[in-house]
Amino acid sequence: MLCIKNLNTWFYTKTGINKAINGIDLEITQGENLGLVGESGSGKSVTALSILRLVPAPGRIVKGEIEFFGKDLLKLPLKAIRHIRGREISMIFQEPMTALNPVFTVGKQVAEIYQYHFNYSKNEALEKAVHILQLVGIPSPETITSAYPHQLSGGMRQRAMIAMALSCKPKLLIADEPTTALDVTVQAQILRLMDELKHQIGTSILFISHDLAVVAQIAQKIAIMYAGKIVEMGDLKQILESPFHPYTQGLLAAIPKLGHIKRHLETIPGSIEKANSIGCAFASRCKKRLPICSKKAPSLKKIGTFHSVACWQYE
């Protein structure tokens, strides 16, 4: 359904070029949930914005292909992309308080999607808005349509965002850290809701998060991203049970486990670097680095039927 080939999205700043995405390849099939995991600054959100061609200045998609059902989205005119956004590919943005317009009611913002994509009248669109708000589990949706975003709780705002994203029954839903600002109980409700709606509508999901534990609850396949590159990719079970890349191993080791009391939590030393280095971007933080790691970047290689890794240890 979605095939990304050698995507490069760079930011041209006063201090130089920041290669936020430095040649990634990704595939999502119909009905599949793919989890894109990595720490802040790894390029996850820029990947999502690149798919929808919403990369803000001074960012620019330099090269690559983003094929959606055989059409290269990077070659389509802007008018065609606007009809795909929201209708065929929808996105739940990271922070619902800033993504929702504070001066318009929730009902107006949801109804606007039906008016734009289906030319519904104002009343018809509002009826549809009430129905979709009810579908995502918002109580008294008729009342909520008259409310402003600041009058809703974090969980309710997130549900409203999901309602907007699913209103056109898109083929692909991009969820950019949709549960980050929510408490654990609401987080579980949102994940369950997304999974239920996915089965009802048949939508594929690209779920972006820095939390492997959250991704494990919704994804069937996982791609680990670091400094603008995919460093490991495979089925959920394979990645969780047999992680090969030192970065994936570090992420899994950092998850606190019930019943295992430790004086110090596991951490990955150092911080993420810009993807401009000659060698492997993770080399400076890696406990298993080899002499070649700082000289040449490894490519993503298959080490199993559905498992790939970019690391010199497995060349």
Report on the structure:
By secondary structure, the protein is of the alpha/beta class. It has helices at residues 44-51, 78-84, 96-99, 106-118, 122-135, 141-144, 154-166, 184-201, 212-215, 236-241, 246-253, and strands spanning 2-13, 16-28, 33-37, 59-68, 71-72, 89-92, 172-176, 204-209, 221-226, 229-235, 301-304, 307-309. The longest helix has 18 residues, at 184-201. The chain has 11 helices and 12 strands. The radius of gyration is 20 Å and the shape is globular.
Give a quick summary of the entry.
This protein has eleven helices and twelve strands. The protein is an alpha/beta fold and 315 residues long.
Keywords:
315 residues; alpha/beta; 4-stranded antiparallel β-sheet
Chain-wise SSE layout:
Layout lengths: L1 E12 L2 E13 L4 E5 L6 H8 L7 E10 L2 E2 L5 H7 L4 E4 L3 H4 L6 H13 L3 H14 L5 H4 L9 H13 L5 E5 L7 H18 L2 E6 L2 H4 L5 E6 L2 E7 H6 L4 H8 L47 E4 L2 E3 L6
Parallel strand pairs: 3-8, 3-9, 6-7, 7-8
Antiparallel strand pairs: 1-2, 1-4, 4-5, 9-10, 10-12, 11-12
Helix pairs in contact: 4-5, 5-7, 7-8
